[in-house]
Design a protein that fits this description.
The protein is mainly α. It has 28 helices and no strands. Helix 3 packs antiparallel against helix 4, helix 19 packs across helix 21 and helix 27 crosses helix 28. The longest helix has 27 residues. It is elongated and about 105 Å long. The termini are far apart. 41% of the residues are buried.
Length: 575
């Protein structure tokens, strides 16, 4: 496998040189490279290829006397990332450690790097599913020293993403400070990652054929674009959600980073001369505020009062603490953002599952806690529609879809990933212990059992009471040994209190339909109330007789005998 991978990547490198010479279009280049990788029999290193990312980095950094690779090479790199042929995180990590220090001599290269970073630097949901993602994490760690600087091992994807995002943003802040000579004002008096070449003479004369005035103009433009990219990241809600995790779990490093950010806000002439708002910068810096600009008390009050009143307290009244709840607030925010259109709704399943995995890893919580936090956030999303904002478009159906479809599919995505990883032979015992699909299914089951203790949270909206009651009735019939196909469901009355169900019954049915649970869930303690259990004393054929009679069936002797032997189950059948 290793030799085959090396062979097709070497072919891709040669073809890239020929394609540049012949001015081949990027789409054609990407198609030929993808075909070559598939023909080589590669499986682990075709999508988000490590070898291709390293090859592209070499091509982009081998700029000859001008210091810049041909424009076609950057277009090929863009095509490779857009087609998911090369690992974006690895390519950008390799470029960052070499392009940033050389940005003064190679301003065009740095400008193109910033564009790649803006387009592809923070799309992780598909990368995390790649078979080679563990290798990608290790290579990036070796290149950027993430685990050494942040003191967290990068063996967990969630931890890695938090470290990588903070690293990239930190590099941009240090670059902006260095451009204006402000690094000398920091206590360390140097950048966390290199921003200047070690050998200054090596870069001299790189742009000797260009006018110095043009070089300085490019450098000034790059300084503005760097700060604009920082502002963009601080306004992006996915990025700020990740940064909130860094703040909670990497407090020492976070303090150093925010001090540099504050230095930039106070002293940067480029920032002060721009029209960019400083709100996002200042909100991130303030100690008593989180990345969303709310203090911890007000942040919880942005949501339903259930959130503000310790939503993850135990059913016995023993509160787990507001800080525990705040650890999972990004889930609430993402679900709301999906509804108001502030972020793209595409790939919402992968994004939500990736967010849950990141929170579980960074919070060092159990999967039981992660799953129950996800369910509670999704149920709260539905409950917040009880106090809807006035407007012509009702959102309840959308919120129910998020609960019963998107959230359930996100859980399925997490478990399916664990299933796929179990088949790999090179898994560490650490991953096997924490991500075995059997353990995840057990944690899912336990989380749904615990969810039943939040009775007030699970009260269904009026429009789905009937569906919840039918879900509870179905469970009762299975437990009672009644054949669901016997026609019994025809007898259920939507308004009858005998078949009282709640949103947990609907969630369980959704999980069963996606093979996350089986019907053994119907036997959980407290899942069926005592009123529903009483139906086991009634023969389903007798119930079907009353149903047929009320629908106008002729009163034959056999039907009369059946009706006499079994009284009506409720008065509604006689009215």
């Amino acid at each position: 496998m290793e030799s085959t991978s090396s062979a097709w990547v070497e072919w891709a490198a040669e073809y890239t040189k020929a394609a540049q010479a012949d001015a081949r279009p990027p789409n054609e280049w990407a198609a030929r490279v993808a075909a070559a990788a598939a023909a080589a029999g590669e499986r682990e290193d075709v999508q988000f290829s490590v070898g291709l990312a390293e090859m592209l980095a070499r091509v982009l950094l081998s700029g000859g006397s001008s210091g810049a690779a041909p424009a076609a090479a950057w277009k090929y790199a863009e095509a490779a990332l857009a087609a998911r042929l090369a690992s974006p995180a690895l390519l950008l990590a390799l470029l960052s450690s070499r392009v940033i220090p050389q940005r003064a001599a190679r301003p065009t290269v740095y400008r193109l790097y910033l564009e790649l970073l803006r387009r592809h630097g923070f799309k992780f949901c598909f990368q995390m599913k790649a078979a080679n993602f563990e290798k990608v994490m290790q290579l990036i760690d070796d290149n950027l020293n993430l685990s050494k600087i942040f003191t967290f091992p990068t063996c967990e994807p969630g931890v890695f993403i938090v470290e990588f995002v903070l690293c990239i943003l930190w590099q941009l802040v240090d670059t902006a400070l260095d451009d204006e000579g402000l690094l000398e004002l920091t206590p360390e008096k140097k950048a966390q990652w290199p921003t200047r070449p070690q050998d200054i003479s090596a870069s001299e004369g790189s742009f000797s054929e260009q006018k110095q005035e043009k070089i300085e103009k490019l450098q000034m433009m790059n300084s503005v674009i760097t700060i604009e990219l920082i502002a963009h990241l601080l306004h992006d809600k996915v990025t700020t959600s990740i940064l909130s995790l860094a703040r909670e779990n990497m407090q020492t490093q976070w303090g150093v980073f925010t001090n540099r950010l504050q230095l930039l806000v106070v002293n940067s002439s480029t920032l002060q001369a721009s029209t960019m708002s400083l709100d996002a910068f200042q909100q991130l810096i303030l100690d008593d505020h989180n990345v969303y600009g709310d203090n911890k008390h007000n942040l919880r009050k942005r949501f339903h009062p259930m959130v503000a009143s310790n939503p993850l307290s135990s059913p016995n009244g023993c509160c787990l603490g507001g800080s525990y709840s705040a650890l999972w607030i990004p889930i609430d925010m993402y679900l709301e953002d999906c509804l108001d259109g502030s972020i793209a709704a595409t790939n919402s399943i992968e994004t939500l599952s990736g967010l849950v995995k990141a929170l579980q890893a960074v919070n060092r919580s159990t999967w039981h806690d992660a799953f129950i936090a996800l369910w509670i956030a999704s149920v709260r999303l539905v409950q917040r529609e009880r106090e809807p904002i006035e407007g012509p478009v009702p959102h309840l159906e959308t919120r129910l879809c998020m609960l019963l479809s998107i959230t359930t599919l996100a859980v399925a995505d997490i478990i399916e990933e664990a299933d796929s990883r179990l088949g790999e032979t090179d898994l560490s015992s650490h991953w096997k212990e924490k991500a075995a699909s059997g353990d995840l299914r057990k944690e899912l089951m336990l989380s749904l059992q615990a969810l039943g203790d939040y009775e007030s949270l699970l009260v269904p909206p009026p429009c789905i009471i009937s569906a919840a009651n039918q879900a509870a009735s179905k469970a009762a019939m299975v437990v009672s040994g009644i054949n669901i196909g016997s026609g019994y469901m025809e007898n259920t009355n939507d308004s009858s209190p005998n078949y009282s169900g709640n949103m947990r019954h609907l969630i369980v049915e959704s999980c069963i339909s996606r093979n996350l649970l089986d019907t053994s869930a119907y036997y959980w303690s407290g899942y069926i109330n005592s009123h529903v259990n009483s139906m086991s004393h009634t023969n389903p054929s007798q119930l079907a007789g009353w149903s047929s009679f009320m629908k106008g069936a002729p009163l034959t002797q056999s039907l009369a005998t059946m009706l006499v032997s079994s009284p009506a189950s409720r008065c509604a059948l006689l009215l």
